[in-house]
Amino acid sequence: MNYLAHIYLSGEDPDLIFGNFIADAVPGKQYKNYSNRIQEGIILHREIDTFTDQHPIFRKSKKLLTEDHGHYSGVLVDMFYDHFLAALWQNYHTESLELFSQLFYKEIESRFELLPDKMKRAFPYMKTNNWLLQYKTLEGLEIILGQMERRTRFKSNFKASINTLKKHYPVYENDFCVFFEDIKMFVSSKIS
User: How confident is the model at residue 187 (pLDDT cuts 50, 70, 90)?
Assistant: First the structure.
């Protein structure tokens, strides 16, 4: 799962959302430097990642990408699944994706000083380019994948993966829908 799914799965709690959002930039036990509820958000993020990586549907989705994208295939499926969450947003949330995104950006801006340095550099770019809303279209996803490709040290072919998504679009959409019901149930058992 990528940014949009992690944020969505955090529910309405701003501290949980914040922790879930920053988790990848908080190594090891450094999460203990944050308040209890933000710590819970960081731990939730890690649990979501573990659940996702071990899920048979997610693994099935990765197989279509492994030959051309190697160890980046999981990152790409995360991005594809965020695309489907955005594209099917009305099935999952009563608020528009546009409003949801703007409220999220506003909340993170209000806590900017608490962001880890890596996120302080990435967040303004994320907000300016409205990544959460960009996920909604294939064109927007392709732009984000191209930006990611430019930042990887090794050959990733991120942008070319859009062709695999287009070729297998109904398969990926079905995989996402089945998987997302499972992860929503998993997360609901974790959030107190």
Answer: very high
| Cα 125 to Cα 98: distance, rounded to the nearest angstrom | 17
* Mean pLDDT of all residues belonging to the chain: 92
| Number of domains comprising the chain | 1
Q: What is the pLDDT of residues 30-78, one digit of tens each?
A: 999 999 999 999 999 999 999 999 999 999 999 989 888 888 899 999 9
Name the residue type at position 77. V
User: HEC string of the chain?
Assistant: CCHHHHHHHCCCCHHHHHHHHHHHHCCHHHHHHCCHHHHHHHHHHHHHHHHHHHCHHHHHHHHHHHHHHHHHHHHHHHHHHHHHHHHCHHHCCCCCHHHHHHHHHHHHHHCHHHCCHHHHHHHHHHHHCCHHHHCCCHHHHHHHHHHHHHHCCCCCCCCCHHHHHHHCHHHHHHHHHHHHHHHHHHHHHHCC
Q: What is the pTM of this model?
A: 0.93
**Residue 138, domain extent:** 3-190
As a whole number of angstroms, the distance between CA 32 and CA 28 comes to: 9
Residue 115 phi/psi, 5-degree rounding, is: -65, 140
**Alpha-carbon span 163 to 147, nearest angstrom:** 16
